[in-house]
Amino acid sequence: xxxxxxxxxxxxxxxxxxxxxxxxxxxxxxxxxxxxxxxxxxxxxxxxxxxxxxxxxxxxxxxxxxxxxxxxxxxxxxxxxxxxxxxxxxxxxxxxxxxxxxxxxxxxxxxxxxxxxxxxxxxxxxxxxxxxxxxxxxxxxxxxxxxxxxxxxxxxxxxxxxxxxxxxxxxxxxxxxxxxxxxxxxxxxxxxxxxxxxxxxxxxxxxxxxxxxxxxxxxxxxxxxxxxxxxxxxxxxxxxxxxxxxxxxxxxxxxxxxxxxxxxxxxxxxxxxxxxxxxxxxxxxxxxxxxxxxxxxxxxxxxxxxxxxxxxxxxxxxxxxxxxxxxxxxxxxxxxxxxxxxxxxxxxxxxxxxxxxxxxxxxxxxxxxxxxxxxxxxxxxxxxxxxxxxxxxxxxxxxxxxxxxxxxxxxxxxxxxxxxxxxxxxxxxxxxxxxxxxxxxxxxxxxxxxxxxxxxxxxxxxxxxxxxxxxxxxxxxxxxxxxxxxxxxxxxxxxxxxxxxxxxxxxxxxxxxxxxxxxxxxxxxxxxxxxxxxxxxxxxxxxxxxxxxxxxxxxxxxxxxxxxxxxxxxxxxxxxxxxxxxxxxxxxxxxxxxxxxxxxxxxxxxxxxxxxx
Length: 613
Description:
- The chain is mainly beta.
- The protein has a single domain (5-531), classed as Beta Barrel (Maltoporin, Chain A), CATH 2.40.170.20.
- The protein has helices at residues 5-19, 54-60, 65-69, 137-140, 416-420, and strands at residues 31-32, 40-41, 48-52, 75-79, 87-91, 99-103, 106-107, 126-133, 147-153, 160-170, 174-185, 188-202, 224-240, 243-257, 265-282, 285-302, 305-326, 329-344, 352-366, 369-380, 384-397, 401-412, 432-444, 448-466, 471-491, 494-507, 523-533, 536-545, 548-549, 557-558, 561-573, 576-583, 602-609.
- It has a 22-stranded antiparallel beta barrel.
- The chain starts with a helix and ends with a strand.
- Residues 1-29 have low confidence and may be disordered.
- It is found in: Cell outer membrane.
């Protein structure tokens, strides 16, 4: 079973104290582990970080992970036809495969395409999400050019045996149900969740076939349904005061109908397994061993005719140690190992590759100043070595104010498709590389906070299709520049959260210099407003995105849009709630990918049982 060390070690080391050890973190909502691979409060991180808690998820009532992430600072999503359809994520304007995604510390995504199936990860299995914007290759290796998203699955919240469950229905034949069970006593605990959801969907694509050919290159005016079944489990054991063992598993199966001239139905599997052992001989030292496996599988059909299959696996192993040298100074070092494998009906010249990496990180406090520095070297069996680094400085001043500056490098390894796909690949490709600089200032009071971040990233050796050689090549460059403003406030029974992103995603390749990179909105915003009236609570989520282009030449424009989701929740008994959500309440028509439809107005009703924590 393959294992991915550093990425796993990082997330695991971070995840151990924050996942089971809720007792160890006095306020889990403000402790993150993804930014530095060690537990750190949000206020101490020298990076742009956002945490989405389980309470945030249940309040917002999203039906998918893309729905939960839509419009958040630095994030732009492109969806091809509604629920369950291919969804790609761009962070700070970087490519859709330039974001590293972890599930409980395990790197996920397809080794052939480089994409993560966000649409298949069940939101009901998520305990919290940590979003770190900006390069993190110096800790995690390849892919963390735009940032890192780490998803933590649900865990036991307290001792004793407790159940939870929900059932709901809504527009387009949507229906779903889920159950969960948690238990804990003394030094052992477990959590289990299962979910089934399906929808008849909408007509995914308004594309046209012969003689014009656009969009999905066919005309299929029908509903394109989606079904998802998922199981997740976590167990933990603390055999002694110095030891902790944790294991987790997630499996999500999807059945997806869509429009296409070659493929219009697929069956998918997303599977993640991981285990970690943590040893703390003293308060000043910790050693962790982490192992994990991710499988990404897809069987494809067109009107019952087999169109091939793809299955990629990634095994990771990581060993990480952390030592407090003196008060306020933490030194971390580790080694990561990873193997990627491909099994497919398509012939690949090479079907596996290994990557070994070592890293070191130092964090320190000097009065009002904070310092962080990290360095990593990756040795890949296919493309050779890559060294990345990151340095950051921060200072606290006045009352509740903090400023920081950082500089980091990152790289993206070529995918198996780019390297070995028959007749359209280039085994001589080099990794894509980036340099990023960032400035930020933040203020936090008792009931409110605000943060402003400015960044610039320059990417070179971008992989693009070269029409001269008729294969991919390192020919493109890009400059990504932007501002992100975010904040939240709570007073009395009111709460508000919001963000605004401004982006200049400039393509600097020879063929398209000065144009925008496709499918990135230059402006986006999100606001959530909630009000509690005793057992009743009401809320609204507004998301707005400016225009974008769907092609490199910037000739196919996609207009901007704004949607508003209304929601209500009523606690009609102890531990019981009924939730109502009206998505896209004003029935706004819009697209995020040219020719691919988005749902209009939709309603959902959910009855939920969840014991108070």
